[in-house]
């Protein structure tokens, strides 16, 4: 499954032995991980609207990467292959990328130099005004330099 920002792919086998295909030639600084879904097109449209409204170019700044729920990655491998500064987990469990399950949902955190935000599945965000407002407030502060809540 291809997504915005993916030009080519490489496949590596992480320590767990599962082959993972990483996107390459990605220039975006924002990685958005979300579970593979039969509603991919609708999720992609929603996320594109959200990040574009935050003044990010989807083909330049943002990589949307739907991953299978049975794929487990390591955070250092992700950083090594994709070189992102911001990571958004939309419905992806922290354990799936080698992080602790105590990573709070809806609260921005920093892991070293990486900004990390964990939230619900894209369609759940889209259909919940509370979650959508919280995400939009965060994006405005982060990317539009808007200090107002």
Tag the structure with descriptive keywords.
149 residues, five-stranded mixed β-sheet, two-stranded antiparallel ribbon, 28% helix, globular, disordered N terminus
Summarize the SSE layout with pairings:
Layout: E1 8-12, E2 20-24, E3 30-35, H1 40-53, E4 62-67, H2 75-82, E5 86-90, E6 109-111, E7 114-119, H3 122-126, H4 129-143
Task: Tell me what the structure shows.
The protein is of the alpha/beta class and 149 residues long. It has one domain. The protein has 4 helices and 7 strands. The protein has helices at 40-53, 75-82, 122-126, 129-143; strands spanning 8-12, 20-24, 30-35, 62-67, 86-90, 109-111, 114-119. It has a 5-stranded mixed β-sheet with strand order 4-3-5-7-6, covered by helices on one side. Strands 1-2 form a two-stranded antiparallel ribbon. Strand 3, helix 1 (40-53) and strand 4 (62-67) form a beta-alpha-beta unit. It is globular and about 30 Å long. It starts with 7 loop residues before the first strand and ends in a 6-residue tail after the last helix.
The residue ranges in which pLDDT falls below 50 over 5 or more consecutive positions are 1-17
What is the mean pLDDT? 82
Portion in strands: 15-25%
String of helices and strands: EEEHEHEEEHH
Radius of gyration: 15 Å
